[in-house]
Amino acid sequence: MGSAQNYVNVTRRPPDIEDYIDMFRRYRSWVIGPMFAGLVIAVVIAFLWPDTYISYAVMRITPQAVPANLVPSVVNIQMQDRINQMETEILSRTSLSDIIRKPSLDLYKKELARRPLEDVIEDMKNKSITIKMIEQPGAQGQNRFASAFMIRFEYTDKYKAQMVVRELVSKFNEQNFTVQKHQAEQTTQFLTDEMKRAKEKLDGLEVQMTRFKLENRGKLPEEFQTNVQNMNTLELRLGAVEDAISRDTQDRLILESNLQTVKSNQNFAANNLETTVAGQAVKNQRIIDLSKDITNAKTNLAAMLETYDEGYPAIASMRKQIGVLEKERDDLEKEDQAKPQTGNTRVANPQAQMALQNLDATQKNIQAQIQAKNMEIVTKTKQAEDLRKMIASFQVRIEAAPANEQQYATLMHDYQLAREEYDQGTKKMNASETSRNLEEHQAGENLEVLDPANLPLQPASPQRLVIAGAGAAIGLMVGIVLAGAKELKNTSLKNLKDVRAYTNLPVLSSIPLLENALLVRRKRRLFWLAWSSAIILGCVAMSGSMYYYFFGQS
Description:
It is built from 14 helices and 6 strands. By secondary structure, it is an alpha+beta fold. It has a 4-stranded antiparallel beta sheet. Strands 4-5 form a two-stranded antiparallel ribbon.
């Protein structure tokens, strides 16, 4: 058996510039080949990649021409939000499908031949169309959105790109007008319905108010003070009428008492129509006078008793006077009766006849006055009854007012709210009509084309020089990686530095590598043949792609 071999791991020495130059010489084909291949591939791709043109337009948000404090707008969303809403509508599947299939545009013919329409629309929406607000510098380095936005479209045909941007601008204008008109109509219709509802509610409450006022006429809370004042006035009038009735009753009693006195005097006069002659007649006449005075005094006493109490001084004086008169009359009658009858003849008493005639006239007058007083008392009594009924009616109204106050207050509150709602609705309706006229005259917040769709003269992509340079750079990096891998895999000693570093032996001399000249020439021929073929094929490929780009496209 052979002896076991011991292997020692040796760390590679760090390479220097001469080593890198030697590496490049040894692996130059591995570096240049991928770089050339990357260049060829990048050039072919760059020139086979169709040009993409970008057309754009700028639209500006113009403020409302009429001041908002004079004519408020009915559009309840900001213009930026409206733009987002319009963008959603314009970039919808139906809208983009109409644009793609429009005969004057006829977009994406090749793509539609290979892919479904939905995928093409999705790519067009996400990759080709760009709608963004334009930012402008703000305070403290912050950006804020200006009142303008840009519409961009990328396509391989610059004329169609411009036409599509024009189409999008037109759709924005149409959509903006449609949104404003639709929202104004919706607002007007909504306010019309609200006005109709508010009017019906107001009319219903007016009918309820009218019915309530008719059913509770005179009992409304607002008439409470008037009812109280009227009732107080009626009570004062009733008091005055009752006082008048009391006075008339007293006057009637006095007249009736006087009538009784007159009747008594009439009876007395009728009994004394005849008298005796000589001195006896004088005495009889005195008795008549005293009887008349007593009767008058008693009548006055009865009248005073109707008005005053027994303790009144005049009543006591009147009773005393009556007693004196009655005593004198009684004494005269006794004297007259005590005298003997002389057989004197009785004759007619003219004074008694005259007194009787006066008493008859007085009786008729007093009876007429009593009748007038009775009529006055009846009239005033009826008047008092009417006043009591009226007072009772006002009392019922006053007592019913608190019970009706809550219901009436509720009706009034509902009516006031309905009136305010109707008035506000009327104002809003007028404002809506004015705002709709404003939108119809394009005087509201609107869209204006600031920069129309441009015709792109130069393609925006691809950047062919950048692609070619990037392809060559990527190929170079790949070649360097491959060369580095080859160098790491090759563990042989390449030069005297490696021998000295890894063997630690002195180098006496070096012998050059001896190779067969025929083999060397064959390798060189194959090397140049391979490189010539690669360069020719690469140039043909690049030339073909360039020819296709410049002359082959229809």
